[in-house]
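hey
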């Protein structure tokens, strides 16, 4: 079973967010949150909130019981959002462009599927 959470228009560039999400990709949710707690980057807060949101979405839709410590981040990606374009005055009456990037963050969490035990062929 899987659940998804999307957070849009994060005021940080996708390149900065990807540095953070590469460390938590494939980890369990409690492990990922503990890693993000000790990171100094500003973009860790929206990443944590999105992971928690996906985790609680999974709890809401799941009818059967499962171990909450085994929920894994199956997919996490940071896509580029719209860019705010601003201008800063420079020398001799010129203007220099400033681009303020935004990020769309998608997190998919799920419970690992239990594979049925392989039955030995009796010949």
């Amino acid at each position: 079973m899987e659940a998804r959470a999307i957070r849009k228009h994060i005021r940080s560039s996708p390149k900065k967010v990807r540095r953070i999400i590469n460390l938590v990709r494939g980890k369990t949710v409690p492990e990922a949150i503990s890693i993000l707690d000790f990171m100094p980057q500003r973009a860790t807060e929206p990443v944590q909130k999105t992971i928690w949101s996906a985790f609680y979405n999974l709890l809401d839709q799941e009818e059967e019981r499962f171990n909450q410590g085994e929920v894994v981040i199956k997919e996490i990606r940071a896509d580029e959002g719209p860019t705010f374009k601003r201008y800063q005055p420079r020398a001799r009456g010129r203007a220099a462009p400033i681009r303020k990037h935004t990020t769309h963050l998608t997190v998919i969490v799920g419970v690992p599927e239990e594979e049925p035990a392989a039955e030995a062929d009796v010949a």
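The longest strand covers residues 2-10. The chain has a mean pLDDT of 92.
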